[in-house]
Amino acid sequence: MTAAPIVEAAPAKLNLYLHVTGKRPDGYHELDSLVAFAEIGDTVTLQPGGARIALRGADLPPAGPRLAISGPFGPALMGENPAGNLVIRAAHALAARLGREADVMIALNKALPVASGIGGGSADAAACLRALGRLWGLEAEDARLYGIAAGLGADVPVCVAGRSCFFGGTGEILDEAPALPDTHAVLANPGVPVPTPAVFKARSATSGGAFSAPARFATAPADSTALAALLRERANDLTDAALTVAPAIADTLAALERTDGCLLARLSGSGATCFALYASAAEAEAAAARVGAAEPRWWVKATRLRASPANAPALPKGLRVGGLAAAPRPMAPFPDTGGWGVG
Q: Are 214 and 32 in contact (CB under 8 A)?
């Protein structure tokens, strides 16, 4: 009997504010950010026992997890080596940590733009870790999930949590945030991929090495208008640098700011996705329709900020970040696609 598939959402991550607070001797930047998640995103589906390959009558042992990709932004990943994909690396790393065989087929529906500042790859890796944790009987707050996540990338631990929180350090320090009010949003991306390293390099040239103070708040905002007012007192410190890498971001922000009901328009992460906040679904949907009609080549979506569950697991403490988690390459290319499956 085939085991039932495990489905995990990989929601878009929004940096409601992002301050660069310092730089470590190893070159990594220290950050302070309030992160929220949207109700739209990618989807990761894990099918246990799906990595074995029948080839010329022989049932070969699994060479590791297999990954099938579908969705509107799936083709953007096809030029990559599958062994370097964050989802595959997450599966390899957690299996190695637990001493298990990663005999799983992973289906990724890629609905979010690639390299767009909303945590797409990080959210996918986090969803894979959560799905494997469910398969292998780990609690949602298991430190091993977060330990693997911290080695994969700065955004992966907060994406494992999957709920609003503050993060600090290089992304490994997660702290509870006040409850966010019911807030709607529009996400807009002008179709320009923006590599994060390029933005940090540009920041060094544009900011003169200046840093910001942490800017956390303890009181829950009463409504979306109050939330926007708090955020206007803060910033995304990567915006000016991102504009030098992708000038189209300026047009995206301006288009959102012109919409009726826009409470705040801001770049998320290193971009190029921008978001605007609204008090109602009707305002967000009308804004998305207006921007999408004016810029049909852009990716534009109306959504809502996800509410944090009342019984959310505790956030981890004391995570340590070393080098990036290594994911072994498959023993041989998969015979059907050279590594990728295409859904």
A: yes
Which pLDDT tens digit goes with each residue over 85-104?
A: 999 999 999 999 999 988 89
Distance of CA 232 to the CA centre of its chain: 23
> Shortest CA distance to 300 belongs to which of 194, 195, 192, 190?
190
Residues 6+ apart with CB under 8 A from 152: 86, 89, 90, 93, 122, 125, 324, 325
Q: Residue for token digits 């409504």? A: 223
Q: What is the pLDDT of residues 186-221, one digit of tens each?
A: 999 999 989 999 999 899 877 666 899 999 999 999
In the residue annotation, 23 being an active-site residue is answered as no
Q: Could you give the CA distance from residue 225 to residue 75 in angstroms, rounded to a whole number?
A: 39
Adjacent-strand bridge partners of 168: 173
Catalytic residue among 32, 155, 237, 301: 155
Active site residue 155: yes
Strands 66-70 and 104-109: parallel
Active-site residue, selected from the candidate residues 13, 42, 103, 110: 13
